[in-house]
């Protein structure tokens, strides 16, 4: 069975564990998703399952996507289509429904989403620079100073400078599933997940790759 699902971020709340400790959790509406395409090594060169999520009206559905969903036998108009690699396509069939009960309380997951866009931001907000002196008479408090006036007399690539902040893909690694509401397809995941409320997120099984969480760029 596939261990990935699409959903939307609802918001945050808190729950109490058996020892009376407060746990901040993010509420994710996970699924249901429907299998819209099955790819195999013989035909496509790799094994994968494409799933769709999110109902949309007829006027917001393109003709190619409508034909694609009709061929898969899906009666619901789906807004998002995503593909997940699998080791084997056995057990999958077109139109199959996958719900949040593929996860259980205690599972570790990775949540992928798009961070909130912050527009143009300075170095202090974007890169957490310390800033300059705030004493009387000092005119440069939050502005960056010279970036390449000495030595090579140019600015090297990759220098952290003011610019566009947010609106990038962010992956939160190793979050814990606290509760699963199978009837309403709701997951309670410990901590925060990227993105604003109502945004699309991907919840997948956690694979320990040794990487650390990356923040907003």
Q: How would you sum up this structure in a few lines?
A:
The chain has 217 residues and is mainly β.
Number of β-strand runs: 12
Q: Can you tell me the overall shape? A: globular
CATH topology: Elongation Factor Tu (Ef-tu), domain 3
Biggest beta sheet summary: 6 strands, antiparallel, barrel
Describe the structure.
- The chain is built from three helices and twelve strands, in the order E-E-E-H-E-H-E-E-E-E-H-E-E-E-E.
- The longest helix has 10 residues, at 63-72.
- The protein starts with a strand and ends in a 12-residue tail after the last strand.
- The protein has 217 residues and is mostly beta strands.
- The mean pLDDT is 86.
- The radius of gyration is 22 Å and the shape is globular.
- 9% of the residues lie in helices and 39% in strands.
- The chain has helices spanning 41-44, 63-72, 123-127, and strands at 4-16, 22-30, 33-39, 48-55, 78-85, 97-98, 108-114, 119-121, 163-165, 169-181, 186-190, 200-205.
- The strands form three sheets. It has a six-stranded antiparallel barrel. Strands 5-4-3-6 form a four-stranded antiparallel β-sheet.
- It has a single domain (4-118, 164-205), classed as Translation factors (Elongation Factor Tu (Ef-tu), domain 3), CATH 2.40.30.
